[in-house]
Every structure is written in C-alpha cells, then in structure tokens.
C-alpha cells in the first residue's frame, strides 16, 4: 500500500448493510508512502493512527498521470 498526504483511505464494510468508512490521510509515517497513516475520519472527524488491513484501499486524490507517446 502506498499513499500520500491528502489521499483518501477507504475501508470496506464487514457485514451486509454496513457502509464503507473514509478517512483523509493527514500524515504518512512509513517509508516511501507506506503505513502507518495518521488519518481524519470523514464521518466524525476523529483523528487516529492506522495500520490498514486487507479491507482497505487508497484513493489517490488530485493527481493526474501523464504518459509519453
């Protein structure tokens, strides 16, 4: 897993009907974008240090990729 400050971390729901949780990455504490991440949860504003599990994915926000022909 690789993330940058400002990216979103999305945690999948574990049970039927349970919604996904989203957090904004405030700080990357691992080397080269690796966890742990200091995050702010979007639903309640709580800030926590997180080591994401296999149910997490990163949404890279505000980045565009350019390719050379």
What does this entry show, briefly?
The protein is mainly beta and 69 residues long. It is built from no helices and five strands.
Largest sheet: 5 strands, antiparallel
Overall number of strands: 5
Amount of beta strand: 35-45%
Terminal CA distance reads: 28 Å
In angstroms, what is the radius of gyration? 13 Å
Number of helices, counting only DSSP H or I runs of 4 residues or more: 0
Runs in which pLDDT lies below 50 for 5 or more consecutive residues are 65-69
- SS class: mainly beta
Number of domains: 1
What does this structure look like?
- Helices cover 0% and strands 36% of the residues.
- The protein contains no helices and 5 strands.
- The protein has a 5-stranded antiparallel β-sheet, with no helix packed on it.
- It has strands spanning 8-11, 21-28, 37-41, 47-50, 56-59.
- The chain has one domain (8-59).
Overview features:
mainly beta; single chain; 5-stranded antiparallel beta sheet; 69 residues; globular
